[in-house]
Amino acid sequence: MQRFFSAVPAKTAGLRAGDTVLAVNGTETSSWTAVSSAIRAAGTTPSEIKIMRDGREQTLTITPVQLVRPVVDEQTGQYARNEDGSFKTVSGGFVGISPTSELKPGNLSDVPPNVGHTLARIAGSMWSLPQRVWDLGVTLVTNGDRDANSPVSVVGVSRIAGEVASTDQIDRTSKEATLVSLVASMNLMLFAFNLIPLLPLDGGHVFGALWEATRRAFAKLTRREDPGPFDPIKLMPLTYVVAGAFILMSVILIAADIIKPIRLF
User: Fold this and answer.
1) Which of 15, 62, 86, 229 has the fewest CB atoms inside 10 Å of its own CB, making it the most exposed?
2) Biological process GO annotation list (predicted)?
């Protein structure tokens, strides 16, 4: 169940801030995604929305309006783009409601699923990282507007943490939760990034060790001479290219965080 703020045409139908949407057109909705999908699929057809208000269930009739909205990539959480670079859009019903956020105490059993979900999102975003860094570089050169969802460097993370700590728009508990989440996400990102199987990252050394073990196992299986240890020196030209790319990426991100910083408040 999700709580929502209401607006036109939701306000016209009688929805209020704090109402909990239970079902749309007879279909139970346990998440914001389910609510949004059901309303979008309804188009402009009058729809019945079951809500919980002050401990009592009510059913309201609401007529959505047609609206074109950008598509969000479920893996990365970013706006999806077409091949030509334009944003993907979808047309569907819209009633003017949005979810609220509410902090609830968790337990240790919640940690593994959240870590796994975060790592999955990080892995998905890494595929688009080179393109996003390129787009950010173009933004700097052309003095364009920076995308709020663009990648940031350690400088950007520090600025964001400073804004969260100094703002008076959220309470202390929300600040603490946000800062802990920020630090955890940054460490998971570094962990995943360091596992990329390229030297000089740790993932490159792991890949080299696995390749060496595979070669020796295959030689033993086929009764051939032990090929010996893997020589990483052979990959030095590629290592120089990778290191250079990382340095260039760092320069672009740090410059963007200084010249065009992302601001939350």
Assistant:
1) 86
2) proteolysis
